[in-house]
Hints:
Elements: H1 22-32, E1 49-52, E2 70-73, H2 75-83, E3 87-90, E4 96-99, E5 105-109, E6 112-116, H3 118-125, E7 131-136, E8 140-145
Antiparallel strand pairs: 1-2, 3-4, 4-5, 5-6, 7-8
Amino acid sequence: MKLQPVLDLATKPRVDAYEHPERLKDHTWLLAGGDVFPYSTAASRDQTDADHIVAYQPDGPPGQTGPHNSAPLRRRHHRWKTHGDYRGRAAGPGRYLWQTPHGLAFLVDDQGTRALDEAEADLILTAPPGFDIHPERLTGAHVEIDLTSGTWPS
């Protein structure tokens, strides 16, 4: 029997290092549930690596590594993101926006992958940090604001 602490997925832990600690990998895996590249089938945990959606900057700001900027990706998908000009962005807990080199956009979440039109993708891409945009084609946009930081996004 192995005893493990309970993870509170509502928290937003961050570390000031490139490497993802195991607890952070667990947190990210539980939010995502598998490889988050568009149209990927869910992979087992040992088939994926914890990856920074937005590239880690060694001289960048503190707290770059956390569920806000991490996702499980298979090596092939990680290479496509890194060397194939795919762009990714976390769009809320367990939600990821991807843009292909040709400008096509896809939202990946617990419901799978769906194509976004240019306006929906732009709405998510230009949202300030802390705003999670949920485009809804029939009812307009649903916005979630994270006010736990104590500051209003500029």
